[in-house]
Amino acid sequence: MNPLYKRRIDKVYINAPRLAIDSTSRLVLFSDCHRGNGGWGDDFYKNKNPYYAALLRYYNEGWTYVEIGDGDELWENRKISDIIPRHADVFRLLRKFFCDNRLIMLYGNHDIEKSKKKWMDKNYSEFCNEHNGRCEDLFPGLCAHEGIVLENKAADFEMLLLHGHQADFFNDKLWRLSRFLVRYFWASLNMFGVQAPSSGSSSLSKNTNICNRELAAYSHLRKVHLAAGHSHRPSFPQTPSEPRFFNDGACVFPWGITCLEICGGEISLVLWQTGTGIDGIIRAERVVLEEGMPLFNS
User: Fold this and answer.
1) % of the chain exceeding 90 in pLDDT
2) Boundaries of domain holding 264
């Protein structure tokens, strides 16, 4: 693999906090929500309902919510205060995870501001309720990490979680230039039908882009499971010989949202979409795209 990316990911791997898991653990991994300001450029808005329904189910069933980057769209939007009020119901549900100590947040290139503790304390601790003008607690004291390692020492298992832009030079080392282009050019072009970089692909085909290939190569090189987002391409190993690299996809597809579930010592790729039953009622539907693959001793 590219030595530059290898060193970059090694740094994340070494410095990442660790979380012990076992066969009783339940974690759901989402990324690339790109929550926006509710306007025409908010790619998250069209999938807000299935996302909320999914989160509500995961919360009620005792899952831990892990957001592995680009949860908020801070390239197209300058201030998080323009985003939180537009999706206040979502953030209140995320706060329930936080209050139950079941919220883990990583940052990506589109919300890299979260890497700064001062920024988090100032912008993520509370928000203003637009209906009554009062401030409400949100995530006081929450830290966003660049990566986290899930481990099971008894099974000699490790899984590195990170956003994935660390294997994308333009969106990592040159992220300020990328943000400038998105903020001042793509937002306007999107009005004329030009797809913005934060928009998802309509294809579920196996990802072949350089970023995912580099991440898969790192997984193979270090003999560690690795889960990421960033590319908006769901990825799941199909054979025992493939690297244990997983990509959870995104929440900005035109047909729904995808995520990774870790439950019972297995990992699955899941799609949530809006569907209409024979009774005419619209519901959020959970579809398993890839059945559970054993993690421990695999």
Assistant:
1) 71
2) 3-294
3-state SS, the chain, equals CCHHHHHHHHHHHHHCCEEECCCCCEEEEECCCCECCCCCCCCCHHHHHHHHHHHHHHHHCCCEEEEECCCECCCCCCCHHHCHHHHHHHHHHHHHHHHCCCEEEECCCCCHHHHCHHHHHHHCCEEECCCCCCEEECCCCCCCECEEEEEEHHHCEEEEEECCHHHCHHHHCCHHHHHHHHHHHHHHHHHHCCCCCCCCCCCCCCCCCHHHHHHHHHHHHHCCEEEECCCCCCECCCCCCCCCEEECCCCCECCEEEEEEEECCEEEEEEEEEEECCCCCEEEEEEEEEEEEECCCC
**Which pLDDT band, with edges at 50, 70 and 90, does 266 fall under?**
very high
What is the per-residue pLDDT for 9? 97
pLDDT band at 195 (very low <50, low <70, confident <90, very high): low
Q: How far apart are the first and last CA of the chain?
A: 23
Looking at per-residue pLDDT, the higher value among 276 and 99 belongs to 99
pLDDT score, position 208 = 46
- Number of structural domains the chain divides into: 1
We report the CATH number of the domain holding residue 110 as: 3.60.21.10
pLDDT mean across residues, the chain: 89
DSSP 48-68: HHHHHHHHHHHHHTTPEEEEE
Check residues 202 and 290 and name the one with the higher pLDDT. 290
- 254, 273 contact by CB (below 8 A): no
